[in-house]
Structures are given as structure tokens and as C-alpha cells.
Design a protein that fits this description.
Elements: H1 2-12, H2 15-78, E1 82-86, E2 92-95, H3 97-102, H4 116-119, H5 123-133, E3 139-147, E4 150-163, E5 166-175, H6 177-217, H7 219-250, E6 258-262, H8 263-280, E7 284-288, E8 295-299, H9 300-316, E9 323-330, E10 334-341, H10 348-351, H11 375-385, E11 389-394, E12 400-407
Helix pairs in contact: 6-7, 7-11, 8-9, 9-11
């Protein structure tokens, strides 16, 4: 009844009254609706901002992962050691260029997702992969890869490791060619040095026993054999000194004192040391230097050793009445020391080996001439350590010319000081 009365009164109310009642109600309703819409917009904006922030975060994480993956792939691709990654089905997940080269698989082919045993046909290596996959622990082995007429020794290791619930396999490969070469050099050096020491030591022992027997009955013979003992001792001293020079030369610049040095002064020192020997052998030493001195960025003792070894070597193989010419020529950034003789010369086959340790051009020649076979090897190593090189030009019977090309210093000198 009350509601009906209110409704009837509302219908009979004047329009002005109705308007005065509706306008405030409508305004309040509109205000409430506006606030609700505003809150909803704020919530939507917040959700959008949160979503945008989350997307940016995931994008940043993804970019970081991509960057790390690219860096890892770059590092692996540039490694000297070979790396091969397999899944539990032996399918290749990764095979870097070094592994491709070491296993001689051939370039321009795609091996990803292929079965390792189908790609690599080395029984020992595939057997090691099977053993590691079966849980028998890391497998270490040395395999030989046949490449034409040569063999490449490879040290391999196979490890199993868990990843994403599976057991992947990691194969690492290392080329042992250089290690074997160094070991061969070491064995050859030990054999050579043992032979070089054995000969004078055996002579000293024999002479000493003879002296002991002859010292009372034949004093002259005893004196002769004592002189021979002294000669052999001097030979040992030269050999040890040359070996020390070679060790210093092979250690590179780390054992050198690099300064600006006058090449003409070093040549003068070497000439003064070798002139008496040359004169005693009837050989003329000729020094032909430019009017302007040259400054080298080098080690004084190293350059002096190079000059001494080349000049003494020329004296040793130049007959009486021969000549040895010492000079140098200038280039823009280099200077070439030249030692030319009129000696016996060197064959083409010997020229390929004369810079090896203990190699002598004339195998049948007596070692009483004082040569140890190390001098030219010292020259080569010292020249390379100083950033230069040594070459030889020779014909049998027409003499030899040795040239050592060395870098010049920044401060060039003036005329020679005589």
C-alpha cells in the first residue's frame, strides 16, 4: 500500500519537482559510475604496465641467453682442441671446426643430428664412446687418424654427464703431433750430445792411461799425450759454451737486453777476435762497411755471437790464400750483415740442414778443426729471436755467402768512429 501510494504521488507530482529529485540522483549515479570506470582503468593500466615489464624482463633474459650462447659458440669454434657433444642416442649436438679438422671429416658438410658412429669410423674412439655411455667412467685414449700417407696422433677423452634427465657425452680431442715432434727432438738432442761428449771423453781416458804408462819410460810421449788431453778438454769447453749459447738463443728475447747498438763496433770486435786465426791460416779478412754507421735495436752479445760464429765458420772452411769479406747493406727498416768467403762451398742438399744442431757439412771431416756443429744453429735462433732471419747462398767450390737480416733502431748514427 505504501509503495503504491508513493508511486501514485510520483506520477501526480509536478515536472519541476521530479526534475529537482532526479538531477541529484543522476549526478550521484554518474559520479559513482565514473569512479568505478576510473578504478577499472587504473587497474587495467597497472596490469598492462606489469605485463609490459614482465615482457621486457623476459626479452632481456632471452637476449642475455642468446648473447651467452653466441659467446660460448664463438669460443668453442675458435678452440684449438676438438669438442664433440652427443646426446644419449649418439646423435651429434655440436662439433666444432677443430674436431672436424682433427678427425679429418672434410669441410662443407653438416654433421649435426647425425649419428656419431656413422660419421667417425675409428673403432677405438667409438668403443670409448660406448664404454662411457654404459657408465664405465671417463675414457682416455690415443688414436691415430690416417690422412693420406701420414698419421695424426690424437689424444681423446670421453665423459658422460647428465643434462635435462638424459646422459649426454662430451668428447674432447687434442693434436699430439707437436708434442711428439718435441719428444723426438729431445731424444735426438740427447743422442747427439751423448755422442759429442763420448768421443772426447774416450780420448781423454785413453790418453790418461797411456800417460800413466809412459810417464817414467818415455817423458816425451807423456808430454805429447798430456797435450792431447788438454786439446780434448778445450773441445769439451767449446762444446759446453756453444750449448749454453744455443740454450740462450732458443729462450728468445726473454734473456736478452735490447738496446741501440752500433753494428760497425760489433763487427770491429768480431774482426779483432778472429783476425789472428785468419792470419795464422793465411786467409785475408776484408771489412767493407758503408761510411755511415747503422744502429740496431738488438742485444749486443747476441749480435757479437752471430758475427763471431759466421766469421769463424768462414775461416774454418776457407783454404789458405782465401778471402773473407764482411759487410752490411742498409734497407729502410732492416740491415743485412753479409759474410762472404771463397771457401769450399756447400751443396744444395747440405744447405737445407746446415742450421740444424750438430750437423756438419763434411761428415768425413775430422772434428779437430774445432767445429761443434752448433754455431750456425745458434746464429739462426738468435736472428729469429731478434725479429730477423738468416739465409745462405753457396755453390760447391765457389765459396758461400751468409746473410743475416736484422731490424734497425730508431736513432741512426753518423760516420764511423775509427
Amino acid at each position: 500500500m505504501m509503495a503504491a501510494a508513493i508511486g501514485l504521488a510520483w506520477l501526480n507530482a509536478p515536472p519541476l519537482v521530479i526534475t529537482l529529485i532526479i538531477i541529484p540522483l543522476a549526478g550521484k549515479a554518474a559520479y559513482q559510475i565514473n569512479r568505478v570506470n576510473q578504478r577499472q582503468e587504473e587497474q587495467c593500466l597497472k596490469l598492462l604496465k606489469d605485463a609490459d615489464s614482465a615482457v621486457r624482463g623476459w626479452q632481456e633474459r632471452w637476449q642475455n641467453l642468446q648473447k651467452e650462447a653466441e659467446q660460448t659458440i664463438t669460443v668453442i669454434s675458435r678452440m684449438r682442441d676438438g669438442v664433440v657433444l652427443l646426446n644419449q642416442s649418439y646423435e651429434i649436438l655440436l662439433l666444432n671446426p677443430a674436431a672436424n679438422y682433427l678427425l679429418n671429416l672434410g669441410s662443407g658438410r653438416v654433421y649435426k643430428d647425425r649419428v656419431f658412429h656413422e660419421v667417425v669410423r675409428i673403432p677405438d674412439l667409438t668403443g670409448a664412446v660406448d664404454a662411457s655411455s654404459d657408465g664405465k667412467g671417463p675414457q682416455k685414449l690415443l688414436v691415430e687418424v690416417v690422412i693420406g700417407d701420414s698419421i695424426r696422433p690424437i689424444k681423446a677423452r670421453v665423459d658422460r654427464f647428465p643434462y635435462a634427465g638424459n646422459h649426454n657425452l662430451l668428447i674432447t680431442l687434442r693434436d699430439e703431433t707437436e708434442a711428439r715432434r718435441i719428444e723426438e727432438i729431445r731424444r735426438e738432442f740427447v743422442a747427439n750430445i751423448s755422442h759429442e761428449f763420448k768421443t772426447p771423453l774416450a780420448a781423454i781416458k785413453g790418453y790418461a792411461e797411456t800417460v800413466e804408462l809412459a810417464i817414467k819410460d818415455d817423458p816425451k810421449a807423456a808430454a805429447y799425450f798430456l797435450a792431447q788431453i788438454q786439446t780434448q778438454c778445450q773441445r769439451l769447453e767449446r762444446l759446453i759454451a756453444d750449448m749454453m749459447q744455443l740454450a740462450r738463443a732458443q729462450s728468445g728475447r726473454s734473456q736478452m737486453r735490447i738496446t741501440d747498438i752500433s753494428l760497425s763496433q760489433v763487427i770491429a770486435e768480431a774482426i779483432n777476435s778472429n783476425a789472428p786465426v785468419a792470419e795464422a791460416n793465411g786467409i785475408e779478412l776484408i771489412v767493407d762497411l758503408p761510411a755511415t754507421d747503422v744502429v740496431l735495436k738488438a742485444d749486443h752479445e747476441a749480435i757479437l755471437t752471430i758475427a763471431n760464429n759466421l766469421i769463424s765458420n768462414a775461416i774454418r772452411y776457407t783454404p789458405k790464400d782465401g778471402e773473407i769479406n764482411v759487410s752490411y747493406r742498409l734497407e729502410e727498416t732492416f740491415c743485412t750483415l753479409v759474410v762472404k768467403d771463397t771457401g769450399v762451398g756447400i751443396t744444395a742438399s747440405d744447405q737445407k740442414r746446415i742450421f740444424e744442431r750438430f750437423y756438419r757439412v763434411e761428415k768425413s771431416r775430422s772434428t779437430d778443426d774445432g767445429g761443434t756443429g752448433i754455431g750456425l744453429s745458434v746464429v739462426k735462433n738468435l736472428a729469429e729471436a731478434l725479429g730477423g732471419e738468416v739465409t745462405v747462398n753457396s755453390q760447391p767450390g765457389s765459396g758461400s755467402t751468409f746473410e743475416v737480416r736484422l731490424p734497425r733502431g730508431t736513432n741512426q748514427g753518423g760516420p764511423h768512429q775509427h
